[in-house]
Write a structure and sequence with these properties.
heterodimer; A: alpha/beta; Rossmann fold; 6-stranded mixed sheet; 9 helices; about 35% helix; globular; B: mainly alpha; MetI-like fold; elongated; binds adenosine-5'-diphosphate; binds magnesium ion; nucleotide-binding (chain A)
């Protein structure tokens, strides 16, 4: 579904991704962990070309999105993203947030987009907030709207970049619960998170990134029981105590 | 009783009110056309200024710095005297509207750029990630939010634009300032002429300025 081949990213002299090779299978749930500044965001944001790699190839759903004339806006319609800071559109109601891109980008009829939008809002438990504005919602509620917004694009892949890191502790679970329920469907998920409980529950595979490289990968149990690298052990001991 | 504000001079001014009214009408009309021109230039160049395209950015920088750092009078004189040499004959009204429009376009471009840059980066990223093109994202997501931030400074621009149309008096523009000036240089009744003119500008500008203050309070800028 997603394949990265020899991906490098430089910001000026800063070498942020150092030759990433990674394949995400259709329907796979991949969790990315790693210390702050290690390049996790750059990595996941390259999967929808929010960051263009300096070198290497990225193939999404059979299309080389790094090719010069790649139909990137088409590909992005099937690769949704959920951000740490939610990034809801503050001048639009919750329902408009969820229906705007389906109507304007995918040209779904308004009525249809609103019906499915309402269904997804119900699914994340926020149907009664459809006509509220984002500023009237808690962080956890905003992030659940962001997930509904992603779902209403009917994506094949959803990318999550630390979706619970900006939330007050008491709101983390409500967002994770929604994500777990999504994981039980066929959708491909790539999730940058430090929530190891979530990883254990849903991840097919975890990769540990440090210094712009994939240091270690395996099923979640591997990371709980016997990680190979010193760096991995140190990192895990810091986030789980 | 023959001071600058003698009663008979006021009487003469009131008797000739049509001359002032004509000027006022011209000033209002020129202001509206100039504002439209300034807004068009300002929005386009302001968006250029936020673009990642180096050439567009450069166009913005050059335009804004040249226009903001030369006097409006010179720009208007330049248009007034140069255009005929290029075979373009325009009425003074048009020269005034274009000149003032070009001038305030530069200031409005800065207001627009500032407004767009004040919208958090994540908004563009969210829109792009949903498959919007850059232009669509600007139109549906960024500009509507930026406009709210831009409204108070834009209103202030409208105020100074109205005042600056008085530059047309120097090219016989038929505006309020010109009418007052020519009326009083004919009979030398400068006192009432300038007071009345000032009051009329005040009448146009003060409500707008008040409105801007109110907007500022509401958006909490
Ligand atoms: N737009 C940018 N310009 C310059 N440096 C950047 C930019 N984005 C990220 N970086 C740098 O790249 C490195 C990796 O960042 P990031 O991918 O955000 O890491 P993570 O998500 O793992 O915390 C950091 O050192 C960060 O400062
Ligand atoms: Mg990050």
């Amino acid at each position: 579904m997603i394949r990265l081949e020899g991906v490098h990213k430089y910001y000026g002299n800063l070498h942020v991704l150092k030759g990433i090779d990674l394949t995400v299978a259709s329907g796979e749930k991949l969790v990315i962990i790693g210390p702050s500044g290690s390049g996790k965001s750059t990595l996941i944001r390259s999967m929808n070309l929010l960051e263009r790699p300096s070198e290497g190839k990225i193939i999404v759903d059979g299309i080389d999105i790094t090719a010069p004339k790649a139909p990137i806006t088409n590909v992005r319609q099937s690769v949704a993203m959920v951000f740490q800071q939610f990034n809801l559109y503050p001048h639009k109601t919750v329902l408009e947030n969820v229906t705007l891109a389906p109507i304007l980008v995918k040209k779904v009829p308004r009525k249809e987009a609103e019906e499915s939008g309402m269904a997804f809002l119900e699914r994340v438990g926020l149907k009664d907030k459809a006509f509220a504005y984002p500023s009237q919602l808690s962080g956890g509620q905003q992030q659940r709207v962001a997930i509904a917004r992603a779902l209403n694009m009917r994506p094949k892949i959803i990318l999550f970049d630390e979706p619970t890191s900006a939330l007050d502790p008491e709101m983390i679970q409500e967002v994770l619960d929604v994500m777990v329920s999504l994981a039980n469907e066929g959708i491909t998920m790539v999730v940058v998170t430090h929530e190891m409980g979530f990883a254990r529950k849903v991840a097919d595979r975890v990769i540990f990134v440090d210094g712009g490289e994939i240091i270690e990968e395996g099923p979640p149990e591997h990371f709980f029981k016997n990680p190979n690298h010193e760096r991995t052990k140190m990192f895990l001991s810091r986030i789980m105590h | 009783m023959n001071g600058p504000f003698a009663a008979f001079k006021w009487k003469a001014a009131l008797r000739d009110w049509v001359i002032f009214a004509d000027g006022l009408k011209t000033t209002i009309a020129v202001s509206m056309v100039a504002l439209a021109i300034a807004l068009i230039i300002g929005v386009i160049l302001g968006v250029f200024g936020t673009s990642h395209n180096k050439i567009l950015k450069k166009i913005n920088r050059v335009y804004v710095s040249v226009i903001q750092n030369t006097p409006l009078v010179i720009q208007v004189f330049f248009l007034y005297n140069m255009l005929p040499h290029l075979g373009i004959m325009l009425p003074v009204f048009t020269v005034g509207a274009i000149g003032v429009g070009i001038y305030h376009g530069a200031y409005i471009a800065e207001v627009v750029r500032g407004g767009i840059e004040a919208v958090p980066r994540g908004q563009m990223e969210a829109a792009i990630s949903q498959g919007f093109t850059y232009t669509e994202a600007m139109k549906h997501i960024i500009l509507p939010q930026a406009v709210k931030l831009m409204l108070p400074p834009l209103t202030n621009q409208a105020v100074s634009l109205i005042k600056n149309t008085s530059v047309m008096a120097m090219i016989a523009g038929g505006d309020l300032m010109y009418q007052a000036d020519s009326w009083s240089s004919y009979n030398l009744y400068y006192g009432p002429a300038y007071v009345i003119t000032g009051m009329l500008y005040l009448l146009l500008c003060l409500p707008l300025a008040r409105f801007a203050t109110k907007l500022e309070l509401r958006t909490g800028v």
